């Protein structure tokens, strides 16, 4: 009996000692990691200072202080010292058990207070954010434990199979950066109240950006791959443009064409090509539950409605490690083998949600900005200039005199790109409202473009090959 007690005591003591040693090892690891980190930072700034001494790339009006110059050079080289804007307080204190992706556990809540050391008035930095329902949180996997990373990883849900780290959401990556789409429940002064998070308490946050489906979701992008969109291939003309050598960007633009397809009726060439309007059309068609069956969007996408809804739902609830395995594997995401459900039900059951728009909101000015888009014109000279550019795969021998694009497929794609850039008015507010000089220059691929702005329009005057 007493021998049993003694060995039980001994066992307990040993266990206690092991747990103390484990804690010590953990502390030592953290110390080592932070020493390695600060050594790396130190080396990086030293290196950058050495490499760049006397090599300021950008012309500067005033001499820039040494420290600022070092920062600027580091930025140009892509090596910056990060400054957390705040640290996550969350309901998860350890990595174990923390959801692998935010969608797994809705009530996973967190707060983030913007630090006063970053802004004098941190609450000012959050003004306007309350209009958004979701935010991107860019953070550091500060508890990775070790700084090693490998080109191939084994995501838990792939059960031992290896894939490239960049095809996964693995925390173990060269720059240990995490990206989470969190629900923004409330902004209170300098603090964000979040839910649907997968970050542990103490996580350093580097940045916050509003989630804007119009920019962030491919479902909202009008410019789909031209091969799949049924658009005119480069070098061909649409019926309205026949007779002109130059394929003018408007009214045969990608956006306008797609808008017609999405609407499923002939809207005429006077229809707006504004992607914002297109987005509204998509929204009312795809995402309104009542109208869903009558929409022509599935037709425009070449898919049936249930596939569209399913893909929409799968996109929203991107699974662990977000492996792009295609729709068939997305179906298998549910652990019980059922297909992913297209509808998401809010917790209180009162608000069934049909896709991201139903539960994501954005500031009104994103879709209805106080600045109107511009009409874009090309002078005959500019049309001629652009018309001589060749695409990268042109049959003309590389040595020929004609200028050649490196990225754009040819004059039509370039015209469409120029149209998009200028219609959105690329000028700064200062330039738009104060500058007398209305000429505007920019480069696109291998072309140097000169244009000017008048009331409600932008006109391309000249397109020349970029001087090399
Ligand atoms: C697979 S990662 C995905 C994170 C993010 N959604 C992304 O895609 O970049 C989520 C896991 O990272 C771990 N994690 C969360 N916060 C962390 C932190 N600060 N340091 C290290 N690991 C963390 C947790 O174990 C969590 O399950």
Blueprint (SSEs and pairs):
Layout: H1 2-52, H2 66-77, E1 86-90, E2 109-113, E3 134-140, E4 152-153, E5 163-164, E6 177-188, E7 191-195, E8 204-210, H3 213-216, H4 226-229, H5 254-263, H6 275-287, H7 297-301, H8 305-316, H9 326-331, E9 344-345, E10 352-353, H10 364-367, E11 375-378, H11 380-387, H12 411-423, H13 429-434, E12 439-444, E13 447-454, E14 457-465
Parallel strand pairs: 11-14
Antiparallel strand pairs: 1-2, 1-8, 2-7, 3-6, 3-8, 4-5, 6-7, 9-10, 12-13, 13-14
Helix pairs in contact: 1-2, 5-6
The structure holds S-adenosylmethionine (SAM).
Catalytic activity: N(6)-L-threonylcarbamoyladenosine(37) in tRNA + S-adenosyl-L-methionine = N(6)-methyl,N(6)-L-threonylcarbamoyladenosine(37) in tRNA + S-adenosyl-L-homocysteine + H(+)
InterPro entries: TrmO-like_N, YaeB-like, YaeB-like_sf, YaeB_N_sf
GO biological process, one term: tRNA processing
Distance between the amino and carboxyl termini:
91 Å
Q: How many DSSP helices?
A: 13
Q: Which spans have pLDDT < 50 for at least 5 consecutive residues? A: 46-61, 224-233, 235-301, 312-357
* Fraction in helix: 25-40%
- What is the H-and-E element order? HHEEEEEEEEHHHHHHHEEHEHHHEEE
Quick one: how many beta strands? 14
pLDDT average, as an integer?
72
Summarize the structure.
Helix content is 32%, strand content 16%. It is an alpha+beta fold and 468 residues long. Residues 336-350 have a biased composition (Basic and acidic residues).
């Amino acid at each position: 009996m007493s021998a049993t007690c003694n060995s039980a005591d001994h066992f307990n003591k040993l266990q206690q000692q092991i747990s103390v040693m484990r804690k010590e090892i953990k502390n030592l690891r953290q110390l080592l990691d932070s020493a390695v980190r600060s050594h790396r930072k130190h080396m990086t700034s030293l290196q950058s200072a050495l490499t760049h001494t006397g090599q300021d790339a950008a012309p500067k009006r005033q001499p820039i202080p040494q420290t600022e110059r070092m920062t600027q050079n580091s930025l140009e080289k892509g090596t910056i010292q990060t400054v957390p804007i705040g640290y996550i307080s969350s309901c998860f204190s350890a990595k174990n058990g923390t959801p692998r992706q935010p969608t797994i556990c809705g009530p996973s809540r967190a707060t983030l207070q913007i630090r006063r050391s970053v802004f004098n008035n941190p609450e000012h930095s959050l003004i306007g954010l309350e209009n958004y329902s979701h935010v991107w949180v860019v953070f550091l996997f500060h508890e990775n434990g070790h700084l090693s990373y490998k080109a191939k990883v084994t995501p838990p849900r792939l059960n031992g199979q290896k894939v490239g780290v960049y095809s996964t959401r693995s925390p173990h990556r060269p720059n240990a950066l995490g990206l989470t789409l969190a629900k923004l429940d409330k902004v209170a002064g300098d603090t964000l109240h979040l839910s649907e998070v997968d970050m542990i308490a103490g996580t350093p946050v580097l940045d916050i950006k509003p989630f804007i489906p119009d920019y962030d979701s491919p479902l909202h992008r009008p410019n789909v791959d031209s091969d799949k969109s049924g658009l005119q291939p480069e070098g061909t003309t649409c019926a309205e443009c026949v007779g002109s050598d130059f394929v003018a960007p408007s009214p045969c633009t990608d956006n306008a064409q797609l808008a017609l397809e999405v609407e499923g009726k002939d809207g005429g060439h006077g229809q707006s090509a504004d992607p914002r309007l297109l987005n509204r059309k998509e929204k009312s068609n795809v995402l309104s539950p009542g109208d869903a069956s009558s929409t022509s969007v599935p037709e425009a996408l070449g898919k049936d409605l249930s596939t569209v809804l399913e893909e929409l739902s799968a996109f929203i609830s991107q699974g662990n490690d977000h492996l792009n395995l295609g729709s068939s594997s997305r179906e298998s995401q549910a652990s019980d083998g059922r297909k992913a459900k297209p509808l998401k039900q809010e917790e209180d059951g009162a608000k069934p949600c049909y896709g991201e728009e139903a539960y994501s909101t954005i500031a009104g000015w994103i879709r209805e900005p106080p600045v109107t888009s511009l009409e874009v014109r090309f002078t005959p000279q500019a049309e001629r200039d652009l018309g001589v550019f060749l695409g990268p795969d042109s049959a003309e021998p590389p040595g020929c005199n004609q200028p050649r694009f490196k990225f754009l497929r040819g004059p039509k794609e370039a015209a469409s790109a120029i149209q998009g850039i200028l219609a959105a008015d690329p000028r700064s507010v200062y330039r738009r409202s104060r500058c007398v000089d209305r000429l505007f220059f920019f480069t696109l691929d291998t072309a140097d473009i000169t244009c000017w702005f008048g009331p409600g329009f932008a006109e391309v005057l000249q397109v020349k090959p970029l001087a090399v």
